[in-house]
Design a protein that fits this description.
mainly alpha; two-stranded antiparallel sheet; 10 helices
């Protein structure tokens, strides 16, 4: 948590590299999980496309490049099916499907993060940049609410969990934990609203509900992926927490919905 928040908060460059490391790790783990089923996605081109999308989104959001530069993604996306013609896979469209899916599932949410920070005011980065209008406040608030929800859900679920939320996908999740997580996230959101502004405080409570519900679905979707592939953890890079995908699965569903809500009502 500290490394994630610190990376996003420190400076515009550390914001970029923190997102880049998490994005690359998550997509690599997704491809590694899929490979256990015998399907061979195009790992190099998939990761290259995701990195290019995130980098171009950062440059466009910062005002360094015009929006038209995002079209550089078109030839990269077309190169993937063309390359598949030469790979001689038994199930080429399975490979294509699993090469493209994480670009939407993981790549799009991370490509939105720079747009939530550049051109914004409020929370200053710890190291200020005089050239760019940059505030990581939305991303910082998002992860604080997400961590509050996860912590509240874990503690409440361990203490009072009796009724399973979706046992066939995630046997340990309970309705009691879900409600407890939402309450703790709402408390955190109330204080964040007073600190950040952006929205009236009552709307921050709505954001807490959005983050709690969508974050839970994000966790369940990743659990569904692992269960279908017979995998326990997405990776081992973070001892005790699994991999990048295990740690940030909630964020890839919750962040786009939070950012959309802020764009509509902020």
């Amino acid at each position: 948590m500290i490394l994630t928040l610190g990376g996003f908060w420190l400076h515009a460059l550390s914001f970029y590299f923190t997102g880049l490391i998490i994005l690359t790790g998550m997509i690599y783990e997704y491809y590694s999980i899929i490979k256990t089923s015998g399907i061979k996605p195009q790992i190099f081109l998939g990761i290259l496309t995701a990195i290019t999308a995130y980098t171009m989104a950062s440059l466009v959001a910062a005002g360094i490049f015009p929006g038209e530069y995002l079209l550089v993604l078109v030839p990269l996306m077309l190169l993937i099916p063309v390359t598949e013609l030469y790979r001689k896979q038994d199930r080429p469209f399975d490979s294509l499907a699993h090469t493209f899916f994480p670009l939407i599932y993981i790549g799009v949410p991370f490509a939105l993060m720079p747009f939530s920070a550049y051109g914004q005011e409020g929370v200053e980065p710890l190291l200020r940049s005089t050239r760019l209008s940059f505030s990581p406040g939305i991303v910082i608030a998002f992860f604080l609410m997400l961590y509050a929800n996860d912590t509240g859900a874990y503690l409440t679920g361990m203490s009072f969990g009796r009724n399973r939320l979706m046992e066939r996908i995630s046997p340990k999740k309970s309705w009691e934990g879900f409600i407890g997580g939402m309450i703790i996230a709402a408390i955190a959101a109330w204080f964040l609203g007073g600190w950040l502004g952006i929205l009236p405080r009552p709307l921050w409570l709505v954001l807490a509900v959005i983050v709690s519900i969508s974050g839970t679905y994000g966790d369940l979707i990743e659990s569904m992926l692992k269960r279908s592939m017979g995998v326990k953890d997405s990776g081992t890079i973070m001892p005790g927490h699994g991999g990048f995908l295990d740690r940030f699965d909630s964020a890839i569903v919750a962040f786009p919905l939070m950012f959309l809500f802020i764009l509509l009502f902020g």
